Amino acid sequence: xxxxxxxxxxxxxxxxxxxxxxxxxxxxxxxxxxxxxxxxxxxxxxxxxxxxxxxxxxxxxxxxxxxxxxxxxxxxxxxxxxxxxxxxxxxxxxxxxxxxxxxxxxxxxxxxxxxxxxxxxxxxxxxxxxxxxxxxxxxxxxxxxxxxxxxxxxxxxxxxxxxxxxxxxxxxxxxxxxxxxxxxxxxxxxxxxxxxxxxxxxxxxxxxxxxxxxxxxxxxxxxxxxxxxxxxxxxxxxxxxxxxxxxxxxxxxxxxxxxxxxxxxxxxxxxxxxxxxxxxxxxxxxxxxxxxxxxxxxxxxxxxxxxxxxxxxxxxxxxxxxxxxxxxxxxxxxxxxxxxxxxxxxxxxxxxxxxxxxxxxxxxxxxxxxxxxxxxxxxxxxxxxxxxxxxxxxxxxxxxxxxxxxxxxxxxxxxxxxxxxxxxxxxxxxxxxx
Length: 434
Fold this sequence. Notes:
Helix content is 43%, strand content 14%. It has 434 residues and is α/β, with parallel strands linked by helices. The protein has 19 helices and 14 strands.
């Protein structure tokens, strides 16, 4: 059964949700206040990079199931998704002011028995608080549920179309029929819907990301031990990952987690734990350790050169992970700031994130469309994001461009044996130093 849906917010979550639900046959109206963005989307132009999303958007705009507007009054009032940003505040808690600010508009606009689905990632208790705020502006009954998303940037279309599970936080039995109609394309494939109370759903989202961030950080801590003892993290990862109780996912050592989700969500969960009086020492330790890991490559460079002043460094990879142009909380930011503070010159390349980085750093650093041009005259290469094109480069060409054959690899893209044969001084995570 096709439904008329409204998505409020066309950021990453809102856009992916709206486009994919339209592809399942629902009629979707995406609402935002950014008219320029809406105009671009209406012309089928992408406003973010996410593999596979562009053709689905184009198809559904052409077929009339997907439209964009800044006029909330004209949008359907039956099923309303909230996909609004909840950025971190300076002390680490989530800023829910944008989400809460929609309450007056919703109260004045919705009709009786409207279903409001919160997709925004929020601290525990927010859904209940939002419901109370909306009720200040309407006497009509409505239903509000928590329905957290579990999308990975770079794999969001795949994750939305084939989720592991659908979490719905509600204690209202009347919601279930509408939820079943909404997500029927998933349940027909055997994907389960897990119903729980709103607070449990909210914590499930934060706890899932916090666990994965903890797993990453744990391996980075083990990598430190490997470096100090001349062990090799590659072997440890394989030996651990084959244990079905542990699994191999998120078990690769590197230079820390980043992006728009892990840093924000683990900080928000830690903040929630402090509010309850049960401050999590584990989450605090993960946050602290990740900050240290993000500066690992800078410490290697300082140890190698003594001083970085007047040195030139090339960076391959700026996005926090391959498959996205997102540089939010990317380890590259910490490295660039550290290099600039040391009065070094910085040259950067990334297949997708150059524009985002240029908006942030302007003319403080140099930007290159060609990866090899980025290396020209550099004293070393920092490898920060494991894009496929960096995995099998022309090493002879790299040596010709670089002033010195030095690579500091924060993602363990290459092997020590191969790099030694190629004649490089090669630093990598959790392996013996050169």
